[in-house]
């Protein structure tokens, strides 16, 4: 757990550097230098990676890939789904791992591998154990899917800060002092700053306190951490909707609705709460998901677990685009798009409230599956 905390801390430090330094360089000193510095940095990082190639540990895979074994077992299981497996003494064989009491498909003995009682030579006994083990591993992978699906709405919310939050900020007063103006994209730095400040506090203060209270080495379970982060994403969307309502009211009161190029006399600090809340949400949910999908898959499928984690945000981004395009098509037909080019005539507040509602629904579904999930025994 601590490893994933500090790993994500390092990523956010890099993001923060890019937002605070590179954005300023690109806006004020030119794009050549703005792209040249990241190129040099990546070359340096690649050199460090290559220097360590001789000391990296690499474990060769088994003769047969675990994913292939699982696929073969599933095919055989479906072929024999109506049959039961009995031991030579006539007793029903028990599952190897207790977690499958949660997985009814296996518990009902409808998905088993047939091993005839007279085929009791050691090679076949080993094959039977391997098949049963692979079935348990396949069941474990299937049990991850409801959690995966319930987190998709969080990924839709995750796609909004780099886009609409930034667009909101571009319409506000962003000057600090008389000469310095914060670039709109740099507002994302509030999320990274929050994560960089929160993770050390969480890892060094909150986790030990939680460990003493619960006895869990991580303070709270992985699913509890994810759930708290998802709840905070709901709060972040609600706060963003309230701030947007205030921004639109300011534009109407000052007669600036049709002057989108004029910065509203409303400070960018109004946006800080939604950024900070979302930053804490991201620190909890993102790290929790990484740890969960890495820890709960079979050892031979760790890369698949991380792929499942990444796919949440890939599919979530696609769902966000689909949702926005659908809403835009519907609202344009009614004469007033929620996503008008003139943000003073748009209704991002409605969109944020909609996402908050979807997030509540997603959180309820998540809690339903999370409370019954049985962790893999280590």
Automatic annotation (TrEMBL):
The chain crosses the membrane at residues 7-25, 31-51, 142-160, 180-202, 223-243, 306-327, 350-369. Keywords: Membrane, Transmembrane, Transmembrane helix. GO terms for molecular function: transmembrane transporter activity. GO terms for cellular component: membrane. It is a multi-pass membrane protein. It comes from the Eukaryota. Pfam families: PTR2. It is found in: Membrane. Belongs to the major facilitator superfamily. Proton-dependent oligopeptide transporter (POT/PTR) (TC 2.A.17) family. This is Putative peptide/nitrate transporter At1g22540. The gene is At1g22540_1.
């Amino acid at each position: 757990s601590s490893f994933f905390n500090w790993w994500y801390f390092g990523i956010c430090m890099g993001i923060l550097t890019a937002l605070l330094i590179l954005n300023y360089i690109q806006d004020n000193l030119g794009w050549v230098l703005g792209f040249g510095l990241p190129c040099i940095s990546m070359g340096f990082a690649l050199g460090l990676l290559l220097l360590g190639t001789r000391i990296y540990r690499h474990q060769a895979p088994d003769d047969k890939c675990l994913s292939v074994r699982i696929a073969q077992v599933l095919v055989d299981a479906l072929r024999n789904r109506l049959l039961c497996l009995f031991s030579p003494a006539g007793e029903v064989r028990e599952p190897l791992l207790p977690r499958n009491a949660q997985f009814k498909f296996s518990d009902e003995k409808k998905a088993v591998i047939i091993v005839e009682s007279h085929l009791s030579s050691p090679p076949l006994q080993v094959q039977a154990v391997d098949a049963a083990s692979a079935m348990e591993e396949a069941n474990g992978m299937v049990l991850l899917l409801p959690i995966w699906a319930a987190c998709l709405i969080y990924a839709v919310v995750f796609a909004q800060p780099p886009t609409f939050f930034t667009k909101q900020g571009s319409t506000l007063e962003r000057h600090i002092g008389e000469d310095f103006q914060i670039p709109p994209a740099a507002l994302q730095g509030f999320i990274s700053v929050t994560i960089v400040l929160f993770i050390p506090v969480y890892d060094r203060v909150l986790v030990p306190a939680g460990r003493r209270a619960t006895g869990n080495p991580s303070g709270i379970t992985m699913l509890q951490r994810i759930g708290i982060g998802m709840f905070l994403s709901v709060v972040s969307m609600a706060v963003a909707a309230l701030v947007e309502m205030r921004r639109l009211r300011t534009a109407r009161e000052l007669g600036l609705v049709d002057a989108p190029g004029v910065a509203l006399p409303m400070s960018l600090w109004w946006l800080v709460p939604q950024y900070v809340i979302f930053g804490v949400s991201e620190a909890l949910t993102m790290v929790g998901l990484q740890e969960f999908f890495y820890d709960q898959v079979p050892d031979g499928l760790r890369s698949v677990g991380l792929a499942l984690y990444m796919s949440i945000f890939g599919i979530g981004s696609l769902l966000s685009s689909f949702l926005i395009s659908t809403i835009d098509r519907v609202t344009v037909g009614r004469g007033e798009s929620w996503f008008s080019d003139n943000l003073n005539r748009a209704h991002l507040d409605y969109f944020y409230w909609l996402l908050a509602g979807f997030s509540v629904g997603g959180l309820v579904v998540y809690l339903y599956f999370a409370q019954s999930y049985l962790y893999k025994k280590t």
